[in-house]
Amino acid sequence: MASCSTSSCLIFSFSLFLLILFSSATTDTISANRSLSGNQNITSKDGNFRLGFFVPSGSPSLSYYVGIWYNKIPLLTPVWVANRASPVTDPAMSELRISGDGNLVLLVNHSNTGVIWSTDASTSNSTVVAVILDTGNLQLRDESNSSLVFWQSFDYPTDTWLPGVMVGFNKLTKRSQRLTSWKNKVDPAPGLFTLQSAPTGATSQYLLFWNLSKEYWTSGIWDGDVFPSVPEMSWRGVVSFTFINNTEETYFIYSANDPNLKIRFVIDSESGQMVVLTWMENTQSWMFCWAIPKFSCSVYASCGPFGSCSYMSRPSCSCARGYRVRSQNEWDFGDRSAGCERITPLQCEQNANNSGKDGFFEMTNVRLPDSPNTLAMAASREGCELACMSNCSCNAYSYKGSSCFVWHGGLLNVQEQYNQADAGTLYLRLAASELQSSERNKKRVVSLVIIGAIVLAILFSSVPAILIVMKKRESRRMIEKAKAMQSGLVSFTYNELQQATRKFSTKLGGGGFGSVFKGSLPGSNDIAVKKLEGLGQGEKQFRTEVSTVGRIQHVNLVRLLGFCSQGSKRLLVYEFMPNGSLDSHLFRNAPSSHLSWKTRYQIAIGIARGIAYLHEQCRECIIHCDIKPENILLDASFNPKLADFGLAKLMGRDFSRVLTTLRGTKGYLAPEWITGVAITAKADVYSYGMVLLEIISGRRNLEQTTAEEAGTRYFPTFAASKLIEGDAAGVLDSKLGPEEVNIEELGRACKIACWCIQDDESCRPSMGQVVQVLEGIIDVHAPPIPRSLLLLASDVPQPINFFFECTSNRTNSNCSGTKSHTSSSSIINEKS
């Protein structure tokens, strides 16, 4: 092979260098000289988002779409789709490029005649490029002037509301900028549900959902801060919402306060809810935060014609009695728009081979279907039934308050187990055979009972064999329930839990709410069963409350697996925590219970995240009311999980307060418990501060002193005095060696603990702030010593001037300035 000359080699190398440099500099850009086809894609500058061809996860067909998805998340998560209604079958024969008129177009067969999607923008004969930004926005803009934007994907969102996307109304173009759900889980075509802004005046705006041109949820009028129907918008530690109204447009927009937080609002194609999700690195999955409307059954016609919705079942949609799913394939992918169809035709319908007379199936305690017809001539329920029976298109009737309502066509918006004042009784028209099957089932049960009694009498001597068979059946049933716990709440009988716990023989602990016992289910891990005491709720109310608590899931909250509501017996089934409660590790001298500083600090952060989730990210703010080491459990890897978080909600605030006081955990009670004022989430913050001091020191807040001192010592006063002296290490657990402790983390933990136990609740931070401080996102200076501690320890010097500084280490931006203690309360209130 001939060698090249020195000059030619240099020229070749320089050309290659320019080519590589040019390629690397334009990895986020589509230009006239660069298009996308096949598996080619472009990535935003910092690698947050990617644009290219993709197939939706789980899709049974090879339908390709051009879209934008998260680049740094291993789970394919599209946030925008271009050709959502026009997929391509062969991306190798398709091309996304800049056309001759300056638009970004998607072509099939690389032909200008095969345009299936275009930006359709007026580009003013500029040299145009398409650039994907790190916000997830795709911009069509002038190559030499990036501020000259002709089109952007943020103006045409699909089902995902990203930070920076506007939902509103353009006054110039008269176009609403809205979100529209996918058709189903694997088809991004426009679906049934939309979210848009509805103007009612110059500044009065609200958000609303639509389905089939029917409004089913509204946020209430924007008050300049939040929507009345969306208290979760006060999630200020995470996101900030803004309303803009100018001469060109009105819109709502939000931003994430932490640039590293991956958050998205998505209209779920199955439920019709706006679901808020955050990406969890530790579990490599999207974590549910909250949803609007709160319950899927509030979504209009979410189960389709003749579908029935129930809060108490998973999934929530099923077909009404005598009906079956019309399109099982669509139903399985979450598209219930086709609803259900009648299994057996009515006698009055053409080609019906029924010999029996049609009848009505009684459905009690239901939300009646939408759009009834009122019959004035029917003066009784019998007359109403006769009027419906005389019309073959009548599918149901209801007689309520001397009024007769009948329904023709599909029944929409039926909800069972509807515990509201407007609940009614619906009489569903069915063919005789469907009604007879119900009677046959009852007779069959009676017959089986009689036959069973006879068989038992005959085979009395074979009782052991029969018991073995019954035990096997029961074992299979318990295995099925154990499997069902992986996906949702399971209802147990008292006998089942009695057997699972071996008649409640192994007690794990107890408290004011009841006792906890260890149990196990066949084929699954161990469980913890809590027997609730003194709970006077009715069964329906208890089930409703439990289903609400059961939907609350977080990596730092003990998961509720099931429940029992049988007569006066109320039991809750939780996941079992093999390492027990935190107090068993903090306050024992055994070497096996020693916790390293790294483990303690991760426990402190985990607990804070769990409480923050209850306060700021759940559909309703849940105040725990009893945070202490005994209620913090540790899994096999010593990850902390907060227990009993749902009991304050189940039992009511007053009851929780009485129990907490009587149980002798006054070392964790905020001052407002004693004064009798209304309790807020800041009471939990105080309790957390006390727990954090115990994690640091390995000592109880109230501890016995030596014989010479004769009495008890309140440890927080000692800790505060050490902090004033600048001796944070003096607070540290003596079992920890100085070499294994991160001094910076220790300082942060000590200072935020003292901020948490301030007497004035307005001076305490939110739990979201606590998490940020422990993670090093927010810096805090030394807090003032609470007055209550000064009264307990008059020898502790009172600081004259302390500061609270809220400065982000990552963004280097001061969010509140540096203020003296006299105004620290207002500073924390603003951030809370």
From TrEMBL:
Q: Boundaries of each Apple domain copy?
A: 348-431
Question: Which EC number applies?
Answer: 2.7.11.1
Please report the stretch or stretches of sequence annotated as the Bulb-type lectin domain.
27-153
Q: Its GO biological process terms?
A: recognition of pollen
What protein family does this chain belong to? Belongs to the protein kinase superfamily. Ser/Thr protein kinase family.
> Per its record, what are the GO molecular function terms?
ATP binding; carbohydrate binding; protein serine/threonine kinase activity
Pfam families found in the cross-reference section: B_lectin, PAN_2, Pkinase, S_locus_glycop
Catalytic activity as recorded in UniProt: L-seryl-[protein] + ATP = O-phospho-L-seryl-[protein] + ADP + H(+); L-threonyl-[protein] + ATP = O-phospho-L-threonyl-[protein] + ADP + H(+)
Q: What protein name applies here?
A: Receptor-like serine/threonine-protein kinase
